[in-house]
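Students often ask why we bother encoding 3D structure as a string. The short answer is that it lets us treat folding as translation between two languages. Here is a chain of 818 residues written in the first language.
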Amino acid sequence: MNDTDIPSEPMVTLPVSGMKCASCSGRVERCLNQLPEVRQAQVNLAMAQVTVTGTIGLENLVVAVEQLGFRVPATTETFLMEKVSSALEGLPLAEALRGVVGVRGVVLDENLATITYIPGTVTLEKLQDVVQGLGVRLQRTDAPQDGMDVVDAERVEEYRAIRHRLGLGAVLVAATLVLVHWDMWGLGSLVALSQVTNQWLQFLLILPVQFWSGWLFHENAWVTARHGSTNMHSLVSLGTFSAFFYSVLVLVVPDLFAVKGIHAEVYFESSGSIIVLILLGRFLEIRAKGKTSQAIRSLMALAPKIARVARDGVEIAVSLRDVVVGDRVIVRPGEKVPVDGVILQGSSVVDESMLTGESIPVSRGVGEPVTGGTLNTSGAFTFEATRVGQETALARIVDMVRQAQGAKPPIARLADRIAAIFVPTVLGIGVVTFLAWWLFGPEPALTYALLNFVSVLIIACPCALGLATPTSILVGTGKGAENGILVKGGDALERACGLDVVVFDKTGTLTRGKPVLTDWTGNDAQLALVAAAEARSEHPIAQAIVRWARQKKLELPPVNSFEAMAGLGIQADVAGHDVRVGTRRFMKNAGIVFSTEEMFLDHCEQGGKTAMLAAVDGGVVGVIAVADVVKEESAGAVSRLRALGLEVVMLTGDNRRTAQAIAGEVGIAHILAEVLPEQKSDEIQALQAQGKRVAMVGDGINDAPALAQADVGIALGTGTDVAMESADMTLISGDPRGVATAIELSRATMRNIRQNLFWAFAYNIILIPLAAGVWFPWFGILLSPVFAAAAMALSSVTVVTNALRLRHFKPSVCHPSL
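And here it is in the second language, the structure alphabet:
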């Protein structure tokens, strides 16, 4: 990880309305980062939001955003007010609610409270804390909206507005183009139109296009100019108004622009076509960007709206948000599990593929956990809710995906720096172009100067630069979530793309993390006696023996007495039999002979297993071998990483013989054995000192320092919360093959970002000189403002469409034997 641990500071994410291009988002980010109370501000143009870390108050933050000419949208929600005691009415209650940070307005009407607030800043719990002191309880009447809902609502509103303006504009521009080609298309023989009449008709048709269809651009350009800045809309507005008012002057004062008796042309169709084409590009861009957030929407849709709970002995249906910790929740076949919990009664097979990416359903019984959002495929069961609301695994996953989609990788900083100076630079190039053509160009010099000036302003596109990175991150992290991979930020994706070495912790990562009985040389009757004795022990090895016996459905006889000798074994009286299980030394001390079993004991130990002897009534009845067995997926995971050109290392505290046995089974050649927990991060540092970029994969608390030290820390979702907090990525299912999938996804995402940035830069570098007429002296080539508008509109759509290709990402499949 590239950041050292920093004490947590308040962090808030606000939706921001009005950001249309990289210049807008760059200005918001720069200005907020200059505030003394802000440690870091990051703007995501694709998600229309800003995430701010620091001590700045929410109201001050909103004011700072609005002073820049943008808006922080709010949502309105109506609550039912229930009186729980004699309460103060009216003004005191309204004032109390208005005092909640994030609330923008309150309207009280009898038993209803309509509250307007900034999404993501106000919770029902905060409101309850305020009104409970006044003897009132609030109850929601509908599902709350979050920041994404508000942004999407504004996007839909803008989509409809543009569609209407685009529709009318397209019809009027089409009619104008007919007038422009009236005589060329032979229409003059049907209705004769003089040049002046034709041009006035063009003016009347384009007038609503310029001032109504194009008003979105002009209004935004004016607001931005009032705050001393410029953006993409400044270029569009200035360019179209230049062409429009030039044409109006030609109509009103034709002699002013006449050259050698030749009347100047009007360019109403250029002004109108530019507006229509850019509206079309914006229309297609909004529709494409709506698809980039499908991953989060799919995750949020996993949770059911209603849960069945048993309260006071009665089964009732309640809203999901009304489920509380401790509720007994009932799930029937075919229903989704509403919240996280532990099964109290019944069993079933649960499909967890929507969260883990694993296609095979898993069995769940009494005492086992279930996760909200998963699908109960067969039997009915009752479980106790242990995590609800924002504490559920699903809610935390959604939150992690949102944070990742809002983060920027280092590669985005180059685009941000260029976007910051892009519009002023283009305006400068436009002015130079105008002056050069006016002073040195052929006649009519002013017409050439104006057209090339407009082409330069219109062809430049900071939008493509601004969208190149966030759209790819948005789709890439969403695709990761679909595959059971949670990425904390775009920087983690970029670092994962350049890895050289992947280090696996052994226990719980490559292996199952708990002992499993692998060998038993006796019969089932003898195993029942041994398991009965071991049932009194809490040792993990004893538990593995008992689990095996229960899986074989053996009936365990009663135990009369039990004694454990630390480090040696156990002795018990089981149904009148003397049962002993333990080491060679333990048996020797008891005078029990076991020479014939010695060879098998050695064989098991060479295979990395823990082997013990079992004796009944003074005679050895069998050898028990227990091992932390390798996950079935581990060999395939290692094989896929090697196929990606990565070095794979296994890190373990076990002795070298055990480590070599496990490593050989999964195909790892490089082993770091007998490493103490506190030495794990040192081993990562040693690899980094060799110039290698290292990923660490682990699941335990003792892996946390190494996960933090590594360039990329990858935690298994089956591990501890500490490990997941320390990691850059989390594999929800605990399948080690997800490591290769995460690296493949990071490579695909970064490749997509580079493609977007290449086309965004190449587009501007190639076409701006063309629009300025640089090639005219040699090749006679000029770019019409209409074609410039079409190219500009196409550039943004191309970038977003290219990012959407990531939705088709599929992880590779590599056979373990490769």
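Translate back mentally: The CA atoms of residues 527 and 549 lie 7 Å apart. Keep this in mind for the problem set.
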